[in-house]
Amino acid sequence: MINEILPPWVASAESFGDAPEDSLFPEERPLIARAVDRRRREFVTGRHCARLALGRIGVPPGPIPRGERGAPVWPAGVVGSITHCAGYRAAAVASADEARAVGIDAETHAPLPAEVLPTVASPGEIAALRALDDADAKICWDRILFSAKESVYKVWFPLTRRWLDFSEAVVDIDASGSFSARLLAGDPALGTRVLSGRWVVSDGLIATSIALPRP
Ligand SMILES: CC(C)(COP(=O)(O)OP(=O)(O)OC[C@H]1O[C@@H](n2cnc3c(N)ncnc32)[C@H](O)[C@@H]1OP(=O)(O)O)[C@@H](O)C(=O)NCCC(=O)NCCS
């Protein structure tokens, strides 16, 4: 699913099941030593997918530590992103020669809880979601918007090392499978105020992606 929404210069791997825990590197084991079973499984399989994806760009298997604010620490010369949700795990990586950042996010294809929507979307975004819903009520547009903003953060943070609030990106979803995110917060490290992404809905899941090419 995830490869459908990534450009050819981004390698990816995904899993609908879980990898064995002994696939972790010794350096990674302390990161989940006290975690509950669900968290252990998503972490292990996220790392497993990451190593598969890295192998596809010729990077040998190695540990992927957890860095500042939870961001994965990729091998030198690589950018990438990991996501997991119930029944799905994925990773996407690219050479830093080709990409400045990659962000991916997966979610269960279900409506956001009503109380969550106003905390992640502006009144203007909510109005746009209603119009999309009028055109196709089978798609959970609010969940796509949420996922798109998570992908925005996964591109934003590794470049800027700064928090970005949900109100600081305005996401405009195109029903044909793309979206744009206009950033109200600027940062020279990002070098742009508009991020272009893609989305897909398949088998009860939503995935979004943003791949920021190196100019
Ligand atoms: C970090 C965050 C984006 C993760 O998204 P999520 O939907 O909760 O969870 P996902 O399973 O999709 O992604 C988790 C993975 O994201 C990665 N991640 C965590 N923090 C990260 C960060 N600061 N930067 C980049 N990637 C990060 C990790 O690889 C993590 O998996 P791991 O802990 O097993 O390595 C989310 O929890 C969060 O903090 N969001 C608030 C910030 C935000 O989205 N702002 C909106 C801007 S418009």
Short key terms for the protein model shown above:
five-stranded antiparallel β-sheet; binds coenzyme A; 28% strand; 215 residues; single chain; 2 domains; globular; three-stranded antiparallel β-sheet; 4 helices; alpha+beta; Ribosomal Protein L22, Chain A; 8 strands
Description:
This protein is of the alpha+beta class and 215 residues long. It is 27% helix and 28% strand. It has helices spanning 37-56, 117-120, 123-135, 141-160; strands spanning 11-15, 78-85, 88-95, 99-108, 169-174, 178-183, 194-202, 205-213. It has a five-stranded antiparallel β-sheet. Strands 1-3-2 form a three-stranded antiparallel β-sheet, with helices on one face. Strand 2 (78-85) and strand 3 (88-95) form a beta hairpin. Coenzyme A binds next to helix 1, strand 2 and helix 4.
